[in-house]
Sequence to fold (274 residues):
Amino acid sequence: MSPYAVPALYAVAIWWFSTGVIILLDHLPRRTFPWSMAGGTAVLLAALYAIGASAGDATERGAYTAFTGALLVWGWQEMSYYMGFVTGPRPEACRPGARGFEKFRAALATSLWHELAIVLGALAILALTWNAPQKFALWTYCVLWGMNLSARLNLFLGVRNLNTEFLPDHLSYLGCYLTKRPMNLLFPVSVSVATVVVVLLGQVALAEPTTPHAMVGFTILTTLMGLATLEHWFLMLPLPAAALWNWSLPPKVAASAATVTTPVPAEPGRRDAA
Fold:
């Protein structure tokens, strides 16, 4: 087996499984949320400890630990937002007829505290890895942060597949901030820049000579960036991509996730709510 196969498969498996677990927990009854967040916070603390402990470990194990720790920290950010614990000063639907900058400001207000928490998470990982040879945790977190921000901007500007089935009932108001369109001007830029980054990371992973630590770390980063780029394409392609996580969705929601949407022609001034 190629030495690149194991880290690549590990990245795919943990990305797919951790995403599904978060979706599953977010769709449980709200009375379970405090328990889920308590467990998630314990995992967060363990992940931060692991990141700090592995910061000086320039081995294959250190690269795996750093990646896993960063992914768990990011998972806490997603759980705290979608469970409604860390959102923003305006957790409500947009004003009917709101458009342009007014709508963008309202959208930002729904998640402002979440965005600040993400920044604090990055600063925490930066502090734990400061002047250390092992920075794959920081780079992993930055990939997740950047690609998540890009996806959210594209959802705001307009994509074909809104994937609103992933939104828990208590966050259904977020649907008014999403726009259904066959294309937006940001999307080609997003996928082009992301593809360039995938290629650059892949070149570093394949470079000779390299250490096992660098090979594993950059292979994981390349795979993660590739998956994030693929997720962007899932927003536009006529594919039921949400069905990848059917096992984590309630039965009725999972059934709708298997449906391929039809294109919606763009009309001047049109903003279809989810």
In short: Residues 60-82 form the longest helix (23 residues). Confidence is low (pLDDT under 50) at residues 261-274.
